[in-house]
Structure formats: C-alpha cells, structure tokens
Write a structure and sequence with these properties.
Layout (H helix, E strand, L loop, with lengths): L6 H20 L4 H12 L3 H22 L8 H18 L6 H32 L6 H24 L4 H22 L9 H4 L7 H29 L8 H12 L2 H12 L1 H21 L3 H12 L2 H15 L4 H30 L3 H46 L1
Helix pairs in contact: 1-4, 1-5, 1-6, 1-7, 2-9, 3-5, 3-15, 4-5, 4-7, 5-15, 6-7, 6-10, 6-11, 9-10, 9-12, 9-14, 9-15, 9-16, 10-13, 11-12, 11-14, 12-13, 12-14, 12-16, 14-15, 15-16
Amino acid sequence: MAQSRPPHLIASAIGGMMALATALGIGRFVYTPILPGMLEALSWTTTDAGMVASANFLGYLAGAFVSSRPFMIGKARGWLLTSLAVSAASTAAMAVPSGLLAFVVLRLLGGMASAIVIVCASTLVLERLASSGATGLTGVHFAGVGFGISISAALVALLASIGLEWRAQWMGSGVLATITGGVAATMIPTSKATPNNAVTGKAGRTPWGLLALIGAHGLFGFGYVITSTFLVNIVRHASEAAAIEPWAWALVGLAAIPSVTVWWWLGKRIGVLQAYALGCLIEAAGVCASVEWTTPSGICMAAVLLGGTFMGITALGFMGAQKLSIDGPQRAMGQITSSFALGQMIGPTLAGYLHEQLGSFRLPTLLAVGALVLAALFAVSAELIPRCLRGVAETKMSVSHSSERAKS
C-alpha cells in the first residue's frame, strides 16, 4: 500500500504551487491573453508589444542573477514574500498607464519578482520535499504555472465576455494574484539550508556538463517564448481558428498542470537530461504547428504540446542543475534561470521586429523550432560530456598505474 504523505509536505507543495501561480502563471503569462486588446486599444505595433514582453524577461534575468547571490541565500522566504507582493502589485498596476515606458517599467519589476519567486520557492519547497523523501510531490509545486495560466485565462475570458476591456482585465488579474500569493505566504515553509560555498561566496568552477545545460536552457527560453507571447494574437488573425481565441491560452494552462508529474516520471525512467531533450523536440513540433497548421485542430495541438512541455522542461532543467552542480543547487538554479531569461528576452523583440518587416510570425517561429532542436542536442551533450571526461580521466589513471608498475 502506498505510504500517505504527511500534511505538512502536501501543504509545502501546494504553497509552492500557489507561489508559481501568482508570479508566473498570472504575473508573467496573463500578458498573452490580454495583449490583443491592448494592441487594438493603444495602437501598439508588434515591436512595441515585443519590447514590453522583453522588459519582463530583462527583469527576469536580473532577478535570476540576484537570486544566486550570497546575500539572498539563507533569506529565501523573506525575499519570496516580498517578491509575491511586488508581482501582484505590478500586475494590478498595468491597468493604470497608457505610455509605453510605464508599461516597460512595470513589466520589468514583475519579471524580476517572478524570477526570485521561482528560484526561492523552488529552493524552499524542493529542499523540504527531497529531505523528506517526498520528491513525488514535485509535480504539485510546478503545476502552479499551468494552474495560474488556466485561472487567469478563464478570468480574462469572463471579463471580456461581459464587456470589460484590458484595464479591468489587468486589475482583476492583480486581485487574483493577491489571493493566490496570500495563500502561498501561509503555506511555504522556512528554509532548512546549511552553509555551503554559495552562502560564503566561494563559488567554484562551473562543470562542463552544467555549462551545456545552461546553454540548452537559454535556447529553450528563446524557443518557447515567441509562441507563448504571441499565440493568442496568431489565433486572432488566423481566420479558420479565430473562434477558439478565448480558450486557446487556457488550453495551454490545462495541459501544463499535469505535465511536470508526467515529465518527472519520465525523467526517472529514461534519465533527466534525456527527458529534457525529448521534451524540447516535442515542444518544437507544437511551436511549428502554431504557424504551419492554423486550423482549430492545429492550434489545439500547438497549445497542448506547448503547455504539456514547457513547465516539464523547466522542472527537468532544475533537476539537472541540482544533479550537475558541485557547489550548491541554488547557484546552479540561478545560472540556468539567467540563461533562460536571456533567451526569452531576445525572442519577443526579434519576433515583433520580424513580424513588422514580414507581416507574419512564421520566420521567427521557425527560428524558435531550430533553437529547440539545438537545445535537445545540448541537453544530450550535458550527459555525455561528464561521461567522456570521466572516461578520459580513468584512461589516464590506468595508463599512469600501468607505467608505474612497468617501472617497478
């Protein structure tokens, strides 16, 4: 009979889920379903929209960088609570301005908060689950992004259906983020962390395998973000699929909810980095479908494949970073999150610019497909490089021992 999980571990996992729902599912991703209305009301170009999206990712990059600094490690819960509050406030505040610069600043703050939340919440929750042998609850924690996407997409669709436009949609999303953030604050535990090299600031070299994973995660960030930013806008302008616009993004969220559990299970069976590579290839198929198969069935497939992989790949990246790190997991998590942020910062700006020039998202989306295939190759090499280096080291040691025996 399966052993029941202690209530405090379930509460920790649910707290992590609500934290990720707040800062990422709502704070980061609600921009996608609200964006088409903003484009029309504010007369933005897609370059403007890409710039605002990239500001969020620049903030994410900054947040990922500071998350791995010594002054934050050991104070994860305090920074987490502050960042949850900033995320909810910056989401609601998007209802106020009309100038592009103000939107850029708000998305920058929200992006910084979201990176700190995912690193700090994951450190606190995954640490507690791992030390208690309850890693099976990891999927609950990471399901928060899909849960947040689904409930915020449903809220936006509901508000739109009763005639409330983008400002009310941002305000409603901010209220929703306040509620979910409050739940997270009451359920996430304090850290049990012990001092390590990252805490003392004595960071060691980054292993070659981890460097390959860091590269893969940057390519993954670029590969998923163009579709995740502009999918609803693509659907709105695809005559055959326009009818499913209100629910296309919700389908992404629904597919994301169970995805981490599925990918965690697969990672245990075939290996974390092999599962990471497979996820990137499956996501590449979904991203490609978003521009090459713009019928209702094609868009639904794109939404399911995107939603069913992007959080699974993110979770596998965190697991791989823990596995490959040599001087503390929070530093490694910060490194791959920084690379991810850089990739997703470049994507929307490039896609918006190319759309302005070409009138289509096809070229930037196909570039994203190529990036995901490269990410899969990098992930496989992250497994192979340490194995090859160990083989070389063992060969040298064997030759050295043979030489010593010959001399004696």
